[in-house]
Design goal:
There is one protein chain. By secondary structure, this protein is α/β, with parallel strands linked by helices. It has two domains: 63-126, Roll (Ubiquitin-like (UB roll)), CATH 3.10.20.310; 129-253, Cell division protein FtsQ/DivIB (Rossmann fold), CATH 3.40.50. The protein has helices spanning 2-56, 74-81, 94-101, 168-179, 183-186, 217-231, and strands spanning 63-67, 107-115, 119-126, 129-135, 138-143, 162-164, 189-195, 199-204, 209-211, 238-242, 250-253. It has an eight-stranded mixed beta sheet, with helices on one face. It has a three-stranded mixed beta sheet with strand order 1-3-2.
């Protein structure tokens, strides 16, 4: 009997000890949490008071400078920034405001900085339009990366070439830069069509189609420019100038065609 009671006492002692450790641990954890919350609230209050006092010394927003704007309207930028005149300039979250500006369609990159005591300077880099992409929704303006510029008005960029074909937007800028190396020929371009995801056809304003090879299209384009300089071939009544053969230029006159196969 005594042994059983001794064992029972030992169990009770261990249970009591276990509960004591548990309460101590939970109590310590609760104290730490309360301390952190109190400290955070206190610092938030102190920070607010300090910023208010600093603002009273003249550190309030009065001027917003905007640089680099061309296609983006000033109203769009100001609406994205959502600033208030005379708000404490040190309380403005520059990162948050910059990210809002970079969500605008024309803006590729934005930089925002404080110029104390009262000025914010916004500098933006806009995306460069290179072509009009033909889509099911009509023409869409694309940039150097082949991405559609949201909010742009395609009708104001009629001077840019029209790009069409599956995956045409991806490599359009590289080809356009190649075509620009011959300015006189490039000025005659109306549209560019990507054929079978392999090569390009260049359509001129006078209706002539120039077939470029899959490999080294720039070399073929320069060869055509030299040939045209000597023979004024572009001005003739032609349907097709085929540059796909390395050492030949095939010419098709502008005659009615009964049937037409698939372009390759």
């Amino acid at each position: 009997m005594r042994l059983d009671k001794q064992v029972e006492y030992e169990r009770l002692d261990k249970t009591a000890e276990s509960w004591t450790h548990k309460y101590l641990y939970n109590g310590f954890f609760l104290i730490v949490i309360l301390t952190l919350i109190t400290t955070t609230l206190t610092w938030s209050t102190i920070s607010s008071v300090v910023l208010h006092q600093i603002a009273e010394l003249g550190f309030r927003l009065k001027v917003v400078e905007i640089n680099g704007r061309n296609h983006t309207t000033q109203n769009d930028l100001l609406n994205a920034l959502k600033l208030e005149k005379n708000e404490p300039i040190l309380s403005i979250n520059l990162t948050e405001k910059r990210e809002k500006v970079e969500q605008l369609g024309w803006v590729e990159k934005a930089f925002l900085e404080r110029i104390l005591p009262d000025t914010l300077r916004l500098s933006i880099i806009e995306r460069q339009p290179v072509a009009l992409l033909q889509t099911l929704k009509g023409h869409q303006l694309i940039d150097e990366k082949g991405e559609i510029i949201a909010g742009a008005a395609p009708e104001t960029f009629g001077h840019l070439p029209v790009i069409s074909g599956d995956d045409a937007a991806i490599g359009a800028n590289h080809l356009i830069e190649t075509l620009k190396t011959e300015p006189e020929l490039y000025a005659e371009i109306w549209a560019i069509h990507y054929i079978s995801k392999r090569r390009w056809n260049v359509l001129l304003k006078n209706g002539v189609t120039i077939k470029l090879p899959e490999k080294k299209p720039g070399f073929a384009w320069s060869r055509l420019a030299r040939f045209d300089h000597k023979n004024q071939i572009i001005e003739r009544d032609l349907a097709v100038i085929d540059m796909r053969m390395k050492n030949q230029i095939l010419i098709e006159p502008n005659l009615p065609i009964r049937g037409k196969g698939q372009e390759t």
